[in-house]
Each structure stands twice: as structure tokens, then as C-alpha cells.
Amino acid sequence: MKISIIIPTLDRPIQSKVLISNISLLLNRNVELIVIDDSKNPMDLANLSKEIKYRHRSEKVGVCSARNYGASFAKGEYLLFLDDDDKVSEEWLKDFLDATKSEADMVFCDMITTKFKSGEKVLEMVEIQGFKLVNQIFIPGAWMIRNDFFQTIGGYDERLKYAENTELFMRAYQAKPKFYRIPKANFFYFPSIDGGSKNLRNMIDSLQLILNKHEDNLSNHVKFLYNQIIGVNYMRFRQYEKARIYLVNALKYKPYKMSTWIRLTIAAFPFLAKRIYTENVNPVK
Asked: What is the DSSP secondary-structure string of 242-258?
């Protein structure tokens, strides 16, 4: 078995069935499809391929857990993860299969994503060049990883509900993997407005964990950025003392960053912070 495709899903049966149906048409004897369903009610996949390995857990335990669980019994030499609302090109799987001949630890393809410019949604291609991902995008579906390498670096950290792919890549890069690039935009990523990454509490908890876990390996710029994000989010939760602590921490790495000094000043005046930083962040639609 060359590739195991793993799709976690939660309470999105329509999107999931569309993706599963499309992927099942691409399957062959070298590929297996694994679906991990954490929804309360199981999906009916009777009309789809009998080769699909479907596991219904009926418990919301997180996408990291679902991916690790699927990987735990996957038979493929390589793992491909997809979210249940992703889209791929007709050549996506074929090109990844061909790339297994490279025997690389990680294989990337270019991707198409959506950006908002001047209030308009536009498509943008992200080119992957070696291990340097443009704009630090680590989106499952645009990369494939050797099963044994994934297990060696410990899989996903199941404590994370935000930046889980970024943290996985931090550990992968430390292991100095062999890379291979497919120079074609075979994967289409459309950011969800209701995913776990939009939850500010998830963001705070996960970034704090990453700061503690990778303190010795993170650049000063990343430490600055994560501390500032946490500080601003604590202002949204009206926890101004904690906000000031993290903003001061951010300034340790970039002491002349005027915008951070302004945020720290705002955090010292709760009546002002309440007006500027609302508790709810309206997603861009």
C-alpha cells in the first residue's frame, strides 16, 4: 500500500460525502481511504466504495486526535490528510503516487487559496519551494508525509486546537527530512469561518503551549508575534493584567516596536480597550 488518505469529519455530512465521493473515484489498489467521523450520528456511506475504512467515534475529541487515530492503523507508506470540505484536482492523487518514488520524507504540491483584497475574495496560488512554505501555510492536502517519519516525530500534538500543523512542522524540520516538490497547484484551500482556528480561546491556549514547548527553537520574531497575539486576545477577554504581561514579553524581543507599545498603553486603560478590542471578532465572509 503506497498511500493512506485520512479524512476527519465532524457534523458536516453533506460536505464530507461530496469529498469522499470524489476521492473514492480516484482510488486504486495502491491507495486506501480512511474516514474518522466524530459526529454524533454516523454517516450512510452505503452507496460509496466498499473499500472505504469508516470509523465512527461519536465523540468530539479534536482533529489532531482523529488524524492520529487514522494514522494508527493506516497501511500506507505515506499519509495524506484532508479536511472534510477540501477540494483537489483530478491529478492530485496521481502526482502524489508518482512522488512516492522519490522516497522523500515529505512531499508538497502547490495550492490555490482565497485571499481578501479590498473587500473582494480573490484566488491566489501558493508555490511551495523546498521546506520554505510561502506565508507559512501548512495546509493538509498540500503535503504528504511518510508514515514512519510521522510516527517517529510523534504525530499531532492532541492538546492543540490551533496551529497544529505549524507545530507538527516545527518538529518535522528539526528532524531534517528529505523534501520533494510537485510543481503543480493540485490542492484548493478555502478557509472556514467556523473552524477551531477561529476560536480565540483555542488560539491563546495553543500558542502558549507552543511557546513553552519550543522555547529553545523559536525565533525571536515568532516569540514576539505569539506573545503579542496572546496579549491582544486577553484584552478581548477583558483580562487586562494578563494582556499586559504578554505584551511586555513581546517587547522583550522587539523593544522598539511602536505598535506594541501603543497596545500596551491601551491595555493599561480598560475603558479604552473595551472600545477598541471587542469580545467578538466578526469573520470576513
From this structure: HHHHHHHHHHHH-TT-H
